Amino acid sequence: MFQRWFTIERKMEFDAFLRLVVPQGTRAAYLENEDTKALFETLMLLDHLCIKEEIVRPSGGQCLMRPRGVTDIQKM
Questions:
Q1: What's CA 7's distance to the chain center, in Å?
Q2: Which of 25, 28, 54, 69 is the one with CA 20 to 30 A from 40?
Q3: Helix (H, G, I), strand (E, B) or coil at 12
Q4: Dist. CA 54–CA 13, nearest whole Å
Q5: pLDDT tens digit sequence for 24-64
Q6: Torsion angles phi and psi, residue 51, rounded to 5
Q7: Contact present, 18 and 30 (Cβ < 8 Å)
Q8: How far is the CA of 53 from the CAs of 49, 50, 58, in angstroms?
Q9: DSSP track, 22-66
Q10: 18 burial level (CB within 10 Å; 0-12, 13-18, 19+)
Q11: What DSSP designation does 71 have?
């Protein structure tokens, strides 16, 4: 619905499943040593790939939108 009336200028998507495995309040603890940091980075990469390849939809996000012109909407 929004894509008909607005052009998406920029979007930032959040995670797909990472929030279930590594809640945001605990993410800083994963960066304390090299082993857990590597695990966290691998999970982030896997999460990003799942969104990019449209395997899983992101659980949230933010979009910067610009209204389309009336003539653009009528062409759709």
A1: 18
A2: 54
A3: strand
A4: 12
A5: 777 778 888 898 899 889 998 999 999 899 998 888 767 78
A6: -75, -45
A7: no
A8: 6, 5, 11
A9: S-GGGHHHHTSSHHHHHHHHHHHHHHHHHHHTTSS--S-EEEEEE
A10: buried
A11: H
- State the Cα–Cα distance between residues 21 and 59, nearest whole angstrom: 13
pTM exceeds 0.85: no
Amino acid at 50: C
The tokens of 62 are what?
A: 């933010």
Tokens of 8: 């998406």
Tally Cβ neighbours within 10 Å of residue 6. Answer: 15
Query: How do residues 5-22 score in pLDDT, each as one tens digit?
Result: 788 787 776 788 888 888
